[in-house]
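Reading a protein record of the kind used here takes only a little practice. An example makes this concrete, so a full record is given next.
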Amino acid sequence: MISTKGRYALRVMLDLAEQPENTYTPLKEIAARQEISEKYLEIILKNLVKEHFLKGVRGKGGGYMLTRPPEDYTLGEILELSEGSLAPVSCLLPGAADCPRREGCRTLPMWTRFDRLVHDFFYGITLADLLRGET
């Protein structure tokens, strides 16, 4: 299940992708358009800036903008940045300890296949695809 934080991160990135290129958009404007509290939005934006998905400038004329073109962002990378792993079960989390039941686990192939489907789905869609309505 994708949390509010992940859904809001996608909405913010899409909002910024709709803005004129090389233009900073103030946090207040994003918050108003997306109906997200400024405080909560700050947390999301801080993480996106820290990981270089966005540039942020403080002060008059400041705001946020994408660091890359919309076609260079996949929904998968945005969601994983916001959510952590999208793995459906703990044994498929990156760096998870080997499960002692792994060899005899009859459900592992199903979970692995589901994990791949989710990964391929979200990594196969870009912000540009959403802008064009191609999902």
In short: DSSP finds six helices and two strands in the chain. Strands lie at 54-57, 63-66. The chain has one domain: 4-131. The chain has a mean pLDDT of 94.
